[in-house]
């Protein structure tokens, strides 16, 4: 049953596998392995999970009497993996990308207009940190992001679902000069690892138990993803690719939003680099 869930989640049937790109095949292989791991997981729901994370240098502890995941848990995992698959497909499609910004530090941002007229942005950068370090900062310790990124007021993990899926509530800080203004997000986030590459994907999600909060505009992100890949010549550095796909909602003109979002990406990498240099 679970292999069929992979195809349902990613929108992929057997005849399409032959035409898939290398990046898409890799992501699908990882997703299949993770769903197998999810079957072994259920029993750990009875205990509070100290952190969700990929254990790069640790053997996985054996779990006794595994219980199957619930329908709710599978729903969140499917949403996260489906978002990652769609975002990777968007990145893999090389047509339509247009140059936006080349920063003095080597960061490059391109954009593409998607069906429905939404503009997405792709940032490519090289960061002086290993894949493990960046994964730890951006997924395992995501709740600490406000400590080094002043654009974030708070990120709270609402649910740990399976080994590598979380549901989060994020509140942007009120920063001077920001034209977008304060927003909050409710998202499902998923991670997977293949060799020396980590994929982080996500998308907006709705929960009846967590409706839009008073005083905030509930924005929606996704499908979006980050790819962190070790540089062949230096494993202490990583190639960082970030697809930013966001609907900020509200009444802001698209032209203003499309000018602001590339700056959001540049600000994020600037704060991240500063934090890495102080670590």
From TrEMBL:
Residue ranges that the Swiss-Prot or TrEMBL entry lists as coiled coil: none
Alphabetic keyword roster: Lipid transport, Lipid-binding, Mitochondrion, Steroidogenesis, Transport
GO biological process: cholesterol metabolic process; intracellular cholesterol transport; regulation of steroid biosynthetic process; steroid biosynthetic process
Keyword rRNA-binding attributed: no
Name this polypeptide is given: START domain-containing protein 1
Compartment(s) of residence: Mitochondrion
UniProt xrefs under InterPro entries: StAR, StAR-like, START-like_dom_sf, START_lipid-bd_dom
Organism: Amphiprion ocellaris
Subunit and interaction comment: May interact with TSPO.
Pathway linked to the protein: Steroid metabolism; cholesterol metabolism
GO cellular component: mitochondrion
């Amino acid at each position: 049953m679970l292999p069929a869930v992979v195809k349902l989640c990613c929108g992929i049937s057997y005849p399409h596998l032959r035409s898939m790109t290398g990046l898409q095949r890799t992501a699908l292989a990882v997703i299949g392995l993770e769903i197998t791991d999810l079957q072994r997981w259920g029993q750990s729901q009875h205990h509070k999970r100290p952190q969700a994370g990929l254990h790069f240098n640790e053997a996985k502890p054996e779990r006794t009497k595994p219980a199957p995941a619930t329908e709710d848990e599978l729903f969140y995992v499917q949403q996260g993996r489906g978002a990652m698959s769609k975002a990777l497909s968007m990145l893999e499609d090389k047509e339509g990308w247009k140059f936006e910004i080349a920063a003095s530090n080597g960061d490059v941002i391109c954009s593409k207009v998607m069906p429905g007229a939404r503009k997405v942005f792709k940032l490519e950068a090289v960061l002086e940190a290993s894949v493990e370090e960046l994964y730890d900062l951006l997924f395992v310790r995501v709740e600490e992001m406000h400590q080094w990124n002043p654009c974030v007021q708070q990120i709270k993990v609402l649910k740990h679902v399976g080994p590598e899926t979380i549901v989060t509530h994020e509140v942007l800080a009120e920063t001077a000069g920001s034209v977008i203004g304060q927003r909050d997000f409710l998202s499902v986030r998923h991670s997977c690892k293949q060799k020396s590459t980590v994929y982080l994907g996500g998308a907006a999600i709705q929960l009846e138990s967590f409706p839009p909060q008073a005083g905030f505009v509930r924005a929606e992100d996704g499908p979006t993803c980050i790819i962190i890949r070790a540089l062949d010549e230096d494993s202490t550095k990583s190639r960082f690719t970030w697809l930013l796909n966001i609907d900020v909602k509200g009444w802001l003109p698209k032209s203003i939003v499309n000018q602001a979002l590339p700056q959001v990406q540049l600000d994020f990498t600037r704060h991240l680099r500063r934090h890495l240099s102080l670590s």
